[in-house]
Amino acid sequence: MSKSKGGSSKKSTADIVAELAQPLADELGLFLWDVRFEKEGATWYLRVLIDKDGGVTMEDCENFTRPFNKILDEADPISQSYVFECGSPGLGRELRKPIHFEVCIGDVVRVRLIRPDENGEREFIVGLVGYDEEEKLIACQTLDENGDGVANVQFSLNDCAFVKLYDDGDLEEELAGAKFD
Question: Domains (ranges, CATH) in the chain?
Answer without folding.
Answer: 13-88 (3.30.300.70), 94-177 (2.30.30.100)
